[in-house]
Amino acid sequence: LLLTLRLCTQVRAINATWIRRCDASHFLTNNGRFLNDFTPYHTVFSALPDSYFKLFWKTRLALYYVYTNISSQYDWYYKADDDTYVILENLRAYLATFDPNEPHYIGFRVKRRMPKHGYNAGGSGYAMSRAAMKIFAEQLFHEKSLCPYHEWEDLAVARSVHL
């Protein structure tokens, strides 16, 4: 999960509700000083200011960090913001119809601004299979021309993965 310091109250709500049904969860932040000991978090964005226009850089770094530092063995990775509520049982049932060893980038597909491939709206979150995360972490992350900046992080991620 990506979060901003000013919204830590939402982290407490997430911790008390849907996140408990995840196999594993990690909050990524730029400053965890207001998070309690019961909230597993990683201070990953300390060099990035807390700004909407830095969401792309935070997301890019988060996807890489989770895959390389936390685990490359999960079948699925779900990126959500701190104002997202997920019905995990429905998400699990849907993802079970896909092979995590194939590259998949799944979410609410929007065609506006990217009519050919579309992009998954970041507000509702999106899932990436293990194979897609491997491609992102091992190939796209290190090549800025393949993963260029865009002010809308969801559009930028879609342009990078083209899956």
What does this structure look like?
It is a single chain. With 163 residues, the chain is of the alpha+beta class. Helices cover 33% and strands 13% of the residues. The protein has five helices and seven strands; from the N terminus they run H-E-E-H-E-H-E-E-E-E-H-H. The protein has helices spanning 8-16, 55-70, 88-95, 130-140, 153-161, and strands at residues 27-29, 41-43, 76-79, 105-107, 109-110, 119-120, 126-129. A three-stranded antiparallel sheet has the order 3-7-4. The protein has a two-stranded parallel ribbon with strand order 1-2. Strands 5-6 form a two-stranded antiparallel sheet. Strand 5 (109-110) and strand 6 form a beta hairpin. The radius of gyration is 15 Å and the shape is globular. The two termini are 22 Å apart.
Short description:
By secondary structure, the protein is of the alpha+beta class. Helices cover about 35% and strands about 15% of the residues.
How many beta-strand elements? Answer: 7
Strand content: 5-15%
CATH class: Alpha Beta
Name the overall outline.
globular
Strand order, biggest sheet?
Answer: 3-7-4
CATH architectural name: Alpha-Beta Complex
* Uncertain parts: none
EC number: 2.4.1.122
Membrane topology: Single-pass type II membrane protein
InterPro entries: C1GALT1/C1GALT1_chp1 (IPR026050), Fringe-like_glycosylTrfase (IPR003378)
Keywords: Glycosyltransferase, Membrane, Nucleotide-binding, Signal-anchor, Transferase, Transmembrane, Transmembrane helix
